[in-house]
């Protein structure tokens, strides 16, 4: 392995080389520090109900844990970032499979898991052609290998759910891991993570303050048009301002391009949230899991990220690519 690859994959000593990384972490830590103060002030001005107070503190504590779990792999190195994304993909698929009943189809789930692991390897290997090829190959495997079960009854449902699971949690979410093949991936990954979470908070706050008309009442009754617009405005402004430092010296260091990036993250992030809401409504569920106290399952917390990851990847790739100066096929030795 070349030194440049080793430094990117395991070079924790380079965690704070980029000023944008320090800026983003400072913003996150600042918000986490101010949150308890805001809860105490709100409780003093208008006493909260015991249940509401407990839920707010539970959510704040969960966020402390989540921030550590998200930031630590990114800072430690690309290898740990990719490993964390692969683990997240597998956990999200597990929650999806249990919610839909697909977990009972062992062979289908095995094919999806193999596909997710293959995506993880392609990402780690910086083998983009394999990464792209794995989607049609996995879809073909899910459709073709089901025939050996000789069970025509339920074939369409098994295959469709398997393809949807792999498309969302293998292929789409895998793009987040592929961002780590860039030399300066830390700031980009953190920008995506922080922007997606800010987008959720901005939509909630804007909806509570100004929301009147519902956005998709049958899909997500609490979402409003005002909340969606507020999220777009706030997230776009944040991405444009912070992205100026994240993408300094690149083709994206221009306000119009950064504004478009912010709009993409906000709009696509809200669509990702609505996609999962549609799945839950169809299944008659409130949450996909109980992994995170106060938030539901990991899939409930990271639903927006699933569609944002490929959208950001391809938008940034169009203007300059990812890891084009990095060695490819690091472990496989393939040079295609």
What does this entry look like structurally?
The protein has one domain. The protein has 12 helices and 2 strands; from the N terminus they run H-H-H-H-H-H-H-H-E-E-H-H-H-H. The chain is globular. The longest helix has 29 residues, at 255-283. Strand 1 (214-216) and strand 2 (220-224) form a beta hairpin. A two-stranded antiparallel ribbon has the order 1-2. The protein has helices at 3-10, 19-45, 50-76, 78-100, 106-125, 128-144, 155-178, 185-210, 225-246, 255-283, 298-301, 303-319, and strands spanning 214-216, 220-224. By secondary structure, the chain is mainly α.
Short description, anyone?
The chain is mostly helical and 336 residues long. The protein has helices at 3-10, 19-45, 50-76, 78-100, 106-125, 128-144, 155-178, 185-210, 225-246, 255-283, 298-301, 303-319, and strands spanning 214-216, 220-224.
SSE inventory with pairings:
Blueprint: H1 3-10, H2 19-45, H3 50-76, H4 78-100, H5 106-125, H6 128-144, H7 155-178, H8 185-210, E1 214-216, E2 220-224, H9 225-246, H10 255-283, H11 298-301, H12 303-319
Question: What's the mean pLDDT score?
Answer: 90
**Quaternary structure state of the chains depicted:** single chain
The total count of helices amounts to 12
Structural class: mainly alpha
Number of domains: 1
Query: How many DSSP-defined strands?
Result: 2
Strand content: under 5%
Strand order within the widest beta sheet: 1-2
Shape verdict: globular
Q: Largest sheet, described in full?
A: 2 strands, antiparallel
How far apart the termini lie comes to 18 Å
Radius of gyration, in angstroms, nearest whole number: 21 Å
What are the segments in which pLDDT stays under 50 over at least 5 consecutive residues? Answer: none
